[in-house]
Design goal:
Layout lengths: L8 E8 L2 E8 L6 E2 L3 H6 L9 E5 L12 H7 L4 E5 L16 H20 L3 E6 H13 L4 E7 L17 H4 L4 H10 L2 H12 L8 H11 L4 H10 L7 H4 L6 E6 L7 H10 L4 E7 L6 H4 L1 H12 L9
Parallel strand pairs: 1-3, 4-5, 4-6, 6-7, 7-8, 8-9
Antiparallel strand pairs: 1-2, 2-5
GO molecular function, one term: acyltransferase activity
InterPro entries: AB_hydrolase_1 (IPR000073), AB_hydrolase_fold (IPR029058)
Keywords: Acyltransferase, Hydrolase, Transferase
Amino acid sequence: MLKFQPAGFGQKSAQTRLGSVVYYTPIDSPVQSTLGSPQYNLAHQFDADNKPTVVFFHNFGGGASAYEWSKVYSVLSISHRVIAPDLIGWGASAHPERRYSTQDYLNVIEDFLEQVIEQISAGPVVAVASSFTGSLVARLAVSRPELFTKLFLTCPAGFKDFGAGAGRRLPEPIINTPFLDTAIYTLGATNEFAVRNFLENFLFAQSDRLSPEIVAAYLASAQQPNAQYAALAFLRGDLYFDLAPYWAHLQVPTALVWGEQAQFTPVATGRRFAELNPRAVRRFQVVSKTGVLPQLEQPGIVAALLLDWLGANTDTAPD
């Protein structure tokens, strides 16, 4: 997956409870190392300039990976320390054979952020996340607010929000049938036609924004060994939860960005989140003619919104 990263980015790794998380960050030379290793410490001597640390978390769904945010964090890397992991079960990170749970991913994100803070940033970070992973980051920010300075979330959703379930992506008899679910994943997510069709019809509002590189990056992630385990856990609805009860207790300053034509998570849901907790949600912005991944479909707009949010004073809470 490194070949899909911006020029000057390298691949490193960190250990979590579920295995190795690969992440991408600007480096002096394209080497691989591990958090805590001598190579890691040498490679990061150039980072001792107190740049603010921004951690980017990708969405879930067949073919997901850190690439999703790459057109945004390539812009930020000049002024900020950028870290973008492939979560467990996705991209180049470990793909354990297991039936994933919501708590699994909360643990992985928590483990990863603790290591980033201890060994890289020396303090809380700005977290950037999208869709379902945005809901996980928000939930973690409620229980561990000391890990974060700000949140920037695009279309966050637990897919059972406000008591309304999003429904399963596949019929229950199919997704719970051994071998059949895997066969469907192989046919429906690991070839170029299927990947392009999914991106065009469900994630993007305008198909002419879908480049061959985007399709290739999603296909490469979807074809990783054991990639079906995380993807099917999401399709089955095993990971879904109602974000609203957690959202009401969020205190970390948060900016929400929504794709005007987002499927599964309409703009109306975003407005409900903004109204539910106006003390935390300082900004709610809608990107017109855009789907559920504005960071991939309209990266220039999202990068500008993020840079503005990073420079905003959030010390004083709104009345």
